[in-house]
Write a structure and sequence with these properties.
By secondary structure, the protein is α+β, with helices and mostly antiparallel strands. It has helices spanning 6-22, 26-41, 68-73, 82-89, 102-108, 147-172, 185-202, 216-223, 225-242, 266-281, 308-324; strands at 45-51, 58-64, 93-95, 116-124, 127-136, 206-213, 248-251, 256-262, 284-285, 290-291, 294-301, 330-332. Helix content is 47%, strand content 21%.
Length: 333
Amino acid sequence: MSHLKPEDCLKFFSEVLSILKATHEPEQIISLIVDRIVRMYGCRTCAVVVIDPATEYLRVFAHHNLSHLYVKEFHRALGTGAIARMLSTGQPILITDAEQESTIAKEVQLEHTFRSAVCLQIVAEHRTLGYLHADAREPNVFTVHDLCALQSFADLTSITLNKSYLYEKNLRLDPVDPETDLEKYAPFLERLSTSISRAEANNECLSLFILDIDNYKQIEGTYGYAASKLLLKEIAGVVKTHIRPMDAAGRYGFDELIILRENSPLEKGIAFADELRQIIADTEFTQNKIRATVSVGSAAFPENVKTEEDLLLAAKEALYHAQHEGRNKVSHL
């Protein structure tokens, strides 16, 4: 049984959730999940085993204490045994003493023998993705009282894998948002990540802007849904017209756009954003001649921040300041 206090377990969950919110890369998150389970239970082996959708064979996705050769050669059919039943029914496998349950222990065993073990289904949207395996050298390390916490880690793994799957699926689909004719957020993030890597390698800078249409809900209430959607598309058109070919713009939220400006230090970026803000304020949109303003949050890499995540957070926080300082402003940190 885990020797950690409930508050320590909660801390581990919070750590995983914090990273899960910030990235779509499953390797980092699932490796952290495996590490935290090992620390909680002193596992001999811990692994996330997934079903390869191309072959429908099981393979090791992330692990603790499995050899490189074992992982490389692990290619196990689903079969009809205990693992197959667990994957089909969702009923956990709990082995408190392998010497008393030798038959099922041999079915469950990965590279190393054990005295106690647990296997739990990983499932998302009624689709079985694989299972979480943990074992230990001593008997009775895992009991029925631990299944809830371990299943929570399995569920976090399922959310992580499904999030990655949906992200990759979204990238394969049309990258253009139909309501703005700008990039969808996922491909925009890919572009941002590439730009930051290039800027780091070439000692360059870039600016990021998050643009929010002020009082958008009031505009929708006054002029109607169709007019508000047309307003959003026309403002996006202004953005597309005023960015350079090397830059990028995407749909960030319900009434928010995001702009990446290459080779742009903060001072020049702010000047661009303020000029764009003024152009929008001076323009009449749609046949209703709607006047709208925007609030803009800006941040620069590497002047303000050193990572992609921090760049996005800084621009978002700057937008918050612009909105709460009267709107129709450009703010930066």
